[in-house]
């Protein structure tokens, strides 16, 4: 529980700084981070936490109650209940009982939740301000602790193994969907408890669509295949892209690949604590632009990864803020030539005092398969 105690302490320090008596949390990713309860939360918005300087409450329902008790353990400071009241009434009751005057609410909470909370406070004759947190918990989650880094590294180990496996599996004549099924089955049967997202397997011209969906397209000799995938482990995610050649690549394919590789490695070399995300993006974009492919690279060069597959911070032209040490961010430049092929090269790594340290043990060479 030491890691989660540190996370609660960081939140309470923020509350004291802002003058919040309490915080109400509904976002499942924030709840997972704050409680440390692994493999309990899913896509349902069925929970709410209420945090004060001296109390931790968690309201859920019968579908999750016993799983929370099991994961949190007997010595947990969290008071968990499954009373048959709404999340709004639960928070309103605790706010009144604790004489709270300022209860901050996540900006991701629904309008219905806030309206219900206001109604519950009115019923309790409680006067209470409800300011928004405006992404404050997401900002706290940017800097990963040792436990989080260990989970992310394990997710990447499984992902690395899956890449080695799939390179030996792919043969001309298979479909994208067949490759996806084999890749995801391998991850799930070799340590993953989820996949990070629907794997992208895009062959030939489909690779020019950065988020192409796998389908019936047949893999052919001479294709490049963009494979973007990752294993999920205890609610944390790996995210990696490798582009492989089916047979001997053409001179053009090799040349474009080397541009992407240089863009990736130059961007990684530019990473240091508190570098601006936009500056890292610019390094990769400049390499691609100088090679004449600037019109064929349209997305940010990286995004944060953790409990969510896309979270703060990012290496993008829109992130002009510093990226702190301890942040986990992808680097994934690409070039996408419509009607021909696409190439993307992605690692996930941590920003350290020494620079960018990828989790993967795989290199950046263009692999051939088939």
TrEMBL record:
Residues 151-353 form the Peptidase M24 domain. Residues 7-143 form the Creatinase N-terminal domain. SUPFAM superfamilies: Creatinase/aminopeptidase (SSF55920), Creatinase/prolidase N-terminal domain (SSF53092). It holds the Pfam family Peptidase_M24. Gene3D superfamilies: Creatinase/methionine aminopeptidase superfamily (3.90.230.10), Creatinase/prolidase N-terminal domain (3.40.350.10). Keywords: Hydrolase, Metal-binding. Belongs to the peptidase M24B family. This is Xaa-Pro peptidase family protein. It comes from Kribbibacterium absianum.
């Amino acid at each position: 529980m030491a890691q989660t105690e540190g996370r609660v302490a960081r939140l309470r320090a923020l509350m004291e700084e802002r003058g919040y008596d309490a915080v109400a949390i509904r976002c499942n990713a924030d709840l997972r981070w704050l409680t440390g309860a692994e493999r309990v939360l899913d896509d349902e918005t069925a929970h709410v936490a209420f945090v004060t300087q001296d109390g931790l409450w968690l309201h859920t329902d019968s579908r999750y109650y016993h799983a929370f008790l099991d994961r949190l353990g007997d010595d947990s400071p969290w008071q968990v209940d499954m009373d048959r009241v709404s999340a709004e009434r639960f928070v309103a009751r605790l706010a009144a009982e604790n004489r709270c005057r300022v209860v901050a609410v996540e900006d991701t909470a629904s309008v219905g939740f806030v309206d219900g909370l206001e109604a519950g406070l009115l019923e309790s004759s409680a006067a209470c301000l409800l300011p928004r947190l405006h992404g404050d918990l997401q900002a706290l989650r940017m800097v990963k602790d040792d436990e989080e880094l260990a989970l992310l590294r394990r997710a990447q180990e499984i992902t690395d193994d899956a890449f080695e496996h799939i390179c030996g599996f792919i043969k001309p004549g298979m479909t994208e969907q067949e490759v996806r099924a084999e890749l995801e089955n391998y991850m799930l049967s070799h340590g993953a408890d989820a996949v990070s997202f629907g794997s992208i397997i895009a062959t030939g011209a489909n690779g020019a669509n950065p988020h192409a969906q796998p389908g019936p397209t047949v893999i052919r000799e001479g294709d490049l295949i963009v494979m973007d995938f990752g294993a999920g482990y205890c609610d944390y995610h790996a995210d990696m892209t490798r582009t492989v050649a089916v047979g001997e690549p053409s001179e053009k394919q090799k040349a474009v690949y080397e541009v992407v590789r240089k863009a990736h490695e130059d961007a990684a070399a530019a990473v240091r604590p508190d570098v601006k995300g936009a500056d890292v993006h610019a390094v990769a974009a400049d390499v691609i632009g100088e090679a004449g492919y600037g019109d064929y690279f349209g997305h940010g060069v990286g995004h944060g990864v953790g409990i969510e597959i896309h979270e703060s911070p990012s290496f993008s032209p829109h992130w002009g803020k510093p990226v702190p040490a301890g942040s986990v961010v992808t680097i994934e430049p690409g070039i996408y030539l419509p009607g021909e092929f696409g190439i993307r090269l992605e690692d996930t790594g941590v920003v350290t005092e020494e620079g960018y340290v990828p989790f993967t043990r795989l290199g950046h060479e263009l692999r051939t398969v088939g």
